[in-house]
Amino acid sequence: RQIIAKRLVESKQTIPHYQVTMDFNMDPLLEMRKTLNEQLVVSGIKLSVNDFLVRCCALSMATNQEFNASYGGDCILYHGPVNVGIAIALPEERGGGLVVGTIRNADQKSLRTISQESSYLSKKARESGLAPDEMGDTTFTISNLGMFGVDNFTAIINPPNSAILAVGAAIEKPVVRNGELAVGHEMCATLSLDHRVIDGAMAAMYLQSLKELIENPASLLV
Question: Which active-site residues does the annotation give?
Answer without folding.
Answer: 195
